[in-house]
Design a protein that fits this description.
The protein has about 375 residues and is α+β, with helices and mostly antiparallel strands. It folds into two domains: about 120 residues, Chitinase A, domain 3; about 150 residues, Alpha Horseshoe (Serine Threonine Protein Phosphatase 5, Tetratricopeptide repeat). The chain is built from eleven helices and nine strands. Strands 3, 4, 5, 6, 7, 8 and 9 form a seven-stranded antiparallel β-sheet that branches. A hairpin with a 2-residue loop joins strand 3 and strand 4. Helix 9 runs antiparallel to helix 10. The longest helix is centred in the C-terminal third of the chain and has 29 residues. It is elongated, with a radius of gyration of 34 Å. Pfam families: FKBP_C, TPR_8.
């Protein structure tokens, strides 16, 4: 069961004082167990094998759908948030991977760099949540000369992109994040967070993840580094709940490693955040990292001693430990058999009698010798 708070809280710090199961800070709160983010398929070392039909978008750009999206397509000057991998066609040379860097790229359609013109055409023909393979001719890529700095692309190289359109903002003037004021960026991020919460309530976890990721994209590391005082507090009051909500989605979708990463980001800003400690502990417990999970739960208990959910998880771990001990005990008993019973000590009566008899015979022999003498 999940409970969602509609009204945003003024600061993220208040989250730690609330019960894990309570309503707080515009965060999605997970009460039951089972704890996604759209996952890039296969291992990413080579372009994925796609069997869908080839769609011609332009005489130099073609598309194959890997996963269908939803909603409308972005219009010109829309600010799009994308993840992509890029290869030189016909080779295993991968020259970019934003999934690996864990930072989506912002692309304003119609204002993209010259070498990303083909990518822009492909993205403009995608829907939110869609993942596709784009085949781009070298003329709409890095051109006749290629690139010998970063990224390293040979001359006249046709390109293959695996692209996911996380989402987009249809702003007429095509205003990029770098052109926004601090207030505008925080407002845009908060709007995405609220949309994500709506998707979460409908159990559309992947769509919710896309909105949270877009919200976080407005508040990248370069932006947060420049903020101090009240502006930093305002940004964190939106950013941290988005990371925690992403963790809740990831746990629901059983993407436990990624849930741990999202919680760790929050804890790097606020080491006493009870929700982050609790959800990270849940994810670790699901992965069998019992001791590490216990550490997180104990820290959460330290900062929120009365929280019943934390107490419940610690009890569950204790019960698991006890069950594991009993199982191991039975296993070893089966391997080595029952413990042998100690043998009773042999009676010393016969030994004593024998010694007495020998002594007696010796005494009698001595008596006969004396008589003979």
């Amino acid at each position: 069961m999940a409970v969602l708070e509609e009204d945003p809280a003024p600061a993220a710090a208040a989250a730690a004082s609330d019960s894990i199961s309570g309503i707080s800070d515009n965060e999605v709160t997970v009460e039951e167990t089972s704890f996604v983010h759209t996952e890039p398929p296969q291992d990413g070392t080579a372009p994925p094998v796609v069997t869908s039909d080839m769609e011609v978008l332009h005489d130099k750009v073609k598309k194959q759908v890997i996963k269908e999206g939803h909603g409308k397509k972005p219009s010109k000057f829309a600010t799009c948030f994308i993840h992509y991998r890029a290869w030189v066609q016909g080779s295993s040379h991968k020259f970019e991977d934003t999934w690996q860097e864990q930072h989506p790229i912002e692309l304003v359609l119609g204002k993209e760099k010259k070498e990303m013109a083909g990518l822009g055409i492909g993205v403009s023909n995608m829907r939110s949540g869609e993942r596709a393979l784009l085949h781009v001719n070298w003329e709409l890529g890095y051109g006749k000369e290629g690139s010998f700095s970063f990224p390293n692309v040979p001359p006249m190289a046709d390109l293959v992109y695996e692209v996911e359109l996380i989402g987009f903002d249809d702003v007429k003037e095509g205003k990029a994040r770098s052109d926004m004021t601090v207030e505008e960026r925080i407002e845009a991020a908060d709007r995405r967070k609220i949309e994500g919460n709506e998707y979460f309530k409908e159990k559309k976890f992947e769509e919710a993840m896309q909105q949270y990721e877009m919200a976080i994209a407005y508040m990248g590391d370069d932006f947060m580094f420049q903020l101090f005082g009240k502006y930093r507090d305002m940004a964190l009051a939106v950013k941290n709940p988005c990371h925690l909500n992403m963790a809740a989605c990831l746990i629901k979708l059983k993407r436990f490693d990624e849930a741990i990463a999202q919680c760790t980001i929050v804890l790097s800003e606020d080491e006493k955040n009870v929700k982050a400690l609790f959800r990270r502990g849940k994810a670790k417990a699901e992965l069998g990292q019992t001791e590490s999970a216990r550490e997180d739960f104990l820290k959460a208990k330290k900062y929120s001693p009365e929280d019943k959910d934390v107490q419940r998880e610690l009890r569950l771990l204790a019960e698991q430990d006890k069950a594991l001990y009993q199982k191991q005990k039975e296993l070893y008993k089966g391997l080595f058999g029952p413990r042998p019973e100690p043998k009773p000590k042999t009676s010393n009566f016969l030994v004593l009698f024998w010694r007495w008899l020998v002594s007696l015979i010796g005494y009698i022999v001595k008596l006969f010798k004396r008589k003979d003498e």
